Amino acid sequence: MAGRIPLVLLACGSFNPITHQHMRLFELAKDHMHQTGQFQVVSGIVSPVGDSYGKKGLVASKHRLAMARLALQNSDWVTVDDWESQQADWTETVVTMRYHYNRIAALYSEASHKAADAPQLKLLCGADFMDTFKVPGLWREDHMEEVVGHFGLICVSRGMLQANQAIHESDILSKHSQSIFLVREWIHNEISATEVRRALRRGKSVKYLLPDSVIEYIRDHNLYTQESEMKNKDIKLRPLTKPLIQD
Amino acid sequence: MATQEKMKMVLLACGSFNPITNMHLRMFELARDHIEDTGRYRVVKGIVSPVGDGYKKQGLIEACHRLEMARLATESSDWITVDAWESQQPEWVETAKVVRHHHTEILADEDNNNDDVDTVRCGKRRKVMQNTNTENAHLNLLCGADVLESFAVPNLWKPDDIEEIVGRYGVACITRCGSDAEKFINQSDVLYKHRKNIHVVREWVTNEISATYVRRALRRGQSVRYLLPDPVVQYIQEHRLYSAESEKKNADVILAPLQRYSNTK
Lengths: 247, 265
What we know:
The complex is a heterodimer. By secondary structure, chain A is of the alpha/beta class. Chain A contains twelve helices and six strands. In chain A, helix 2 (61-71) runs antiparallel to helix 10. Chain A is globular. Chain B is built from twelve helices and six strands. The radius of gyration of chain B is 18 Å and the shape is globular. Chains A and B meet through helix 1 and helix 10 of A and helix 1 of B. Chain B: Pathway: Cofactor biosynthesis; NAD(+) biosynthesis; deamido-NAD(+) from nicotinate D-ribonucleotide: step 1/1; Cofactor biosynthesis; NAD(+) biosynthesis; NAD(+) from nicotinamide D-ribonucleotide: step 1/1.
């Protein structure tokens, strides 16, 4: 594997709950980045968002972490990290990325003493994520520059249209289009965490959409009810209310 | 409604299962939920019946592997089992015959027929299956809308067989948002006649994992993890199934039903 840049994939999100679809993103991205000939994917990180994110229906992070860990217990390269969810307030994506990049770089420099060996860190996401860039007040421009331009994005989606449209409509994204890797998911699979929660509320089966261990956890803790879906109903998403602090 | 008033139902899925995927397994779950939602039935058993090698479909690997993968895939299910009868027959068997065979088995079933189901579960059951006796259960063929629509393909089905499957037994058909199974049923006299025996299970949220795609990804060394159960992925890796070579199998051979019905005058 001479000359390949080591790469770590970071997925931020609610993981409410984690599903096979989430785990597929990692598999697809790994294959794609390896196929470019430039990268060697060395690890993947699932970073569930903190409770203060304030998204409707978001269950406690301790559950979301536990479920993600159960889901990935048999994975030899993807792990779950709780740093983001342990922070007191909601943490900007770029801050989470900096944290992980620095942590990983420190580990590598201890091991090899060569700065050039430090892996790159890229954000793994779906096409919906690309659209969030245009929501007013949700992203700071300098954060967008850093996430997309400095680190890089890997966007997995079924069609290219939505992602390409989002890039086209944003000056910042267009400027850094070489740092945006678009990965095609050929399989038509619309099963999202939202759909899983809906099925659970209605007492329908979700088997084969997420690992059995996660389903068992959900049953044992009676997560995802009408009541849980109402959580944060009248609350604004934290990113929209958090005061801007110059860093 | 008292449990005794509900009719028992068994779902039978025939197909290549080359390989079995999470989508096949989801079909069973969706159908069971839908049918039980009517309040009239209790779905007591699901049967995966892989087609025999005599079907001669291109890329069809040996039945022994397809059976084993299906067994691994259904290990964690407390109601879905795998049946080898169809694949063990010396020649390809018409679906109607397979349905007939299983119906006979069901009528004869006396005792708890779940010896092949593990008692150790990795997850809690959705409900406790206290009585999984299939005696006198209805038997429905479980399939996708594409199978229903294939009834119209010349020489693929015997008209008598179609009549028997929908008339005497029944069909649970999983249909996607785009496909219009109701329209197809309406346009076919035989299907329309037996429309009461056809459960159209609408899949509101698309979940298509084609086995063709899976085989293609495997040929290219790409990951299929989370599209099929982990034990199946491992099995495929251990036995190095699905290569460019395996996909060429039966390339110049005519599909068994077409061969058989074209010759019959």
